[in-house]
Specification:
It is a single chain. This protein is of the alpha/beta class. The chain has two domains: 31 residues, no CATH class; 107 residues. Helices cover 38% and strands 26% of the residues. A seven-stranded mixed β-sheet has the order 2-1-3-7-6-5-4. Helix 3 crosses helix 4. The radius of gyration is 20 Å and the shape is elongated.
């Protein structure tokens, strides 16, 4: 029985190596990320990084799903990234300061008033902010 399990394990391992080689083999670092499971958040964070000034700046990363918060923060390093890896929590408005960036990836409850340049979330008072860019329910803001 033990030998049969070993053969099955070896077969699965060899099959997985082949699949991984076909998916990632011969691709650049960027292209490997663009076919990975987190490709959508990676592509969005690439656009965020283009619009960020050189480090050090503070970046708040929020998303409804913890996977997207974690992966978004990971792809934003070495910036000073603030996010909650354990719960779907937003920072208090008092925690953000002028010059900070607020990255929203598929997060409900964030409202932007473009006419008054005000960003609001949860039960916090609105904060002055500028929309840097948005796409598909996600956005990047600079706190004024």
């Amino acid at each position: 029985m033990g030998i049969a399990l070993d053969v099955r394990w070896q077969w699965n391992l060899a099959r997985q190596v082949m699949v991984t080689g076909e998916l990632y083999g011969g691709k650049s670092w960027r292209d490997r990320h663009l076919v990975a499971d987190d490709r959508a958040v990676f592509a969005f964070i690439e656009k965020v990084r283009i619009n960020l000034p050189p480090s050090p700046v503070r970046v708040f990363m929020v998303a409804d799903e913890h996977y997207y918060r974690d992966r978004g923060a990971y792809h934003l390093y070495p910036y000073n990234v603030y996010f909650s890896p354990w719960e779907n929590a937003m920072p208090p408005a008092s925690a953000v300061h002028s010059g900070d960036y607020f990255v929203v990836y598929q997060r409900r409850g964030v409202q932007y008033d473009a006419a008054n340049r005000r960003l609001r979330w949860s039960d916090n008072p609105p904060v002055p902010a500028e929309l840097v860019f948005s796409e598909g329910g996600s956005a990047m803001f600079r706190i004024l």
